[in-house]
Q: What sequence folds into this?
């Protein structure tokens, strides 16, 4: 039976940062976005408000900024090697993140079968962000269920990788989970835990798990 590996992005594939922070760094607005990250992590704002606030910060954002952020971000090592191995085994890999879809979807080029993020308008922005397209922790579970149907697997065949409270709901419905450089919200509920900078090492913890 094939398995579906579900990866979070911010704090998981990206170590110690988020894609909005990396995007904002290109605009000289890193500190403002770190403050927003801290606020949402503390439960002081919800994902739609967060998305609206970062959208407002990015009034001058261009595709060149996004490319520079993606290429310069502190990714874990061997992401593409892990995804190539997953494909070779006949398994599936997907990224599901609350971050902007225009950043998350670039990971298709690295070998992910699917990549989902919060729906933002095209860059440069000429429209507001639609709050109904912003993902949540519960939405991650819904997307995982749709992916299971698409790939012909069940929740029992899934492995989830994440680092924070937005991954709790998903960790609760899959049998195997890896807390990657995680905070207190998921480190105690994951079946495996990894601290480090190499995705292959995290993947090896569950590579043979069924």
A:
């Amino acid at each position: 039976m094939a398995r579906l590996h579900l990866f979070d992005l911010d704090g998981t594939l990206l170590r110690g940062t988020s894609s909005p922070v990396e995007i904002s760094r290109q605009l000289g607005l890193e500190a403002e976005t770190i403050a927003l990250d801290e606020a949402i992590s503390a439960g002081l704002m919800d994902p739609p408000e967060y998305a609206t606030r970062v959208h407002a910060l990015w009034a001058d954002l261009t595709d060149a900024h996004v490319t520079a952020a993606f290429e310069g971000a502190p990714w874990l090592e061997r992401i593409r090697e892990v995804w190539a191995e997953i494909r070779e085994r006949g398994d599936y890999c997907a990224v599901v993140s609350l971050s902007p879809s225009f950043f998350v979807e670039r990971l298709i080029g690295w070998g992910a079968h699917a990549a989902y993020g919060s729906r933002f308008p095209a860059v440069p922005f000429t429209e507001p962000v639609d709050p109904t397209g912003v993902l949540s922790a519960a939405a991650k579970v819904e997307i995982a269920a749709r992916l299971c149907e698409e790939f012909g697997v069940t929740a029992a065949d899934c492995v989830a990788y994440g680092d924070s409270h937005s991954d709790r709901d998903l960790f609760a419905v899959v049998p195997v989970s890896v807390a990657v450089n995680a905070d207190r919200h998921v480190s105690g509920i994951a079946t495996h835990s990894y601290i480090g900078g190499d995705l292959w090492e995290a993947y090896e913890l569950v590579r043979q798990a069924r």
